Amino acid sequence: MRIAFFVNSIEGETEYYTTTAFALAAMARGHDICYLTPGDFVLRPDDSLMIRTTTLKNGRPKKADTFISALQGEQSKIQTIAIGEIDVLFLRNDPSEDADERPWAAHAGAIFGRLAAERGVLTVNDPDGLARAQNKLYFQGFPEAVRPTTLISKSIEEIRAFVDEQKQGAILKPLQGSGGKNVFKIASSKESNLNQIFEAVSGEGYLIAQAYLPEAMAGDTRLFLMNGRPLQRDGVYAAFRRVPAKGDVRSNVHAAGIAAAAEITPKMLAVAEMVRPKLVEDGMFLVGLDIVGDKILEINVFTPGGLPNIAELHGVDLALDVIIALEQKVEMRKNYAGRISNRVLATL
């Protein structure tokens, strides 16, 4: 099996990325892997879809740092191949990273991923589902019971009124964004710096204002779902607690948050079950839920990360389970000769 990982850039990949864990797990099982980026698709006049892939010239590194060094160095090579020469296109880019400086690149994966799926390549998460999830507005399509009270607006008057209605204050963040960038806690609409915060966040478009959940002070729990259900092996869940740095409301690891072991409660599993139907319907093979109490702060469908943290905390490499699931889907696709849609196959 050959798996192509679609990422924002080759030079931006690191040894602690979950995509790296997937690549190592795939190679350990004897599969070929390659990487491609937003500028690496070619649709030729005869309607053939080609991809410019970055691969290793030889060897299958077993260590993350060795692999990344080879991928980004002279041990790599670029080849142009037909899309049909890969079995799986794993879309693992973060659109928000490209939204400002390379807007054309932000959704190239979903656009060309749709063409790949039409040509028989298993593409996950399903590109049509990802197209519907291009910003945090996607979250509003899930049951109200799992969402914090939320306002989406560009009006400072609307936001002030909303903040005043929240006894515990509110969180402001851009509708389009990730990694904890421009996330602020507002205790009152009378805060002197609210106008400055509003200007900083609204410069990126619409804002989300969410009722602040006091439990978030202790951090949130990132729980992975695969095929709509919690990913686990032998009682170890693909989950970890993201603890905010002192004095920071953001628990994102990229924002100095700390990864710690998480206890998965029946309440969390009930929340995961409540969002399962829509995730399955949208062909979301692998997602990350950020949970506080019985509420979900975000549903990460593009490039949920943290599996290396879980492996370090529990000694269980759940990236391997993800690769095995892809093997099973490729076998299903062969057995049914294209009679099962990509969207359905993505979560079987």
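The above is record 1. Record 2 follows with the same two-line structure.
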Amino acid sequence: MCQLLGMNCNVPTDICFSFTGFQARGGLTDHHRDGWGIAFFEGRGARVFLDPMPSVESPVAELVRHYPIRSLNVIAHIRKATLGEVRLENTHPFQRELWGRYWIFAHNGHLRDYAPRLSGRFLPVGDTDSELAFCHVLDTLAQRFPEPPAPAELFEALRELAAEIGAHGTFNFLLSNGERLFAHCASLLSYIVRAAPFAHAHLADQDVTVDFNDLTTPDDRVAVIATTPLTDNEQWERIPPGTLLAFHLGMPEAHAQTGAASAENVTNGA
């Protein structure tokens, strides 16, 4: 199973602490060695790093781990290949433009007998079921909404698509347009919201501890989403299978539902 990591905040925040533990899952504390990637939204832009090497051996991953890029939305992925060779074009997360904004997507799972019809506006570059699903999602949204829909309409459309695509297999995913981060759990996904009063956190995959009181202000709020909890001394919330959550300003939005089928300030160190 691939590994997913997402972050959504109310102020730009770096992900160095979480990424330190996450990086270890790419060949040190887990057997996922088929590439990794991470995307940071910066304003309307997106800074994306991809490498088909295992994250524990990747010089690019070391750069990211020590580079405090601050962002409101981050998506990272460590790949265990099930469909598609280990190549750069098959490395998550994937990036496309829709409605004048970049969209970033990463998938954990495997889809079987999945061959959606695409209009041609969004086409996969590689040969993974994940990139094909991403193109299908954006293609459907573009046809359904000529202009950007209201957040509740977008959420409902994504919930329907998650159930439709998920009927073909396991469809855990993270998706963001830089404003919101959507997390769909088909089998395994958890999250934590860190807000005042902050505490110490210890990584499960590395012997690293941080005191968030030294790195935050009382108004800061950060949501971190991962396939399995990254820390072993905090209370993570398990997302029920079949659930889509939309994270905005560091917390889940109220319209999150369960499907039947399946800034100006700067914060450091999520």
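The chain has one domain: 3-258.
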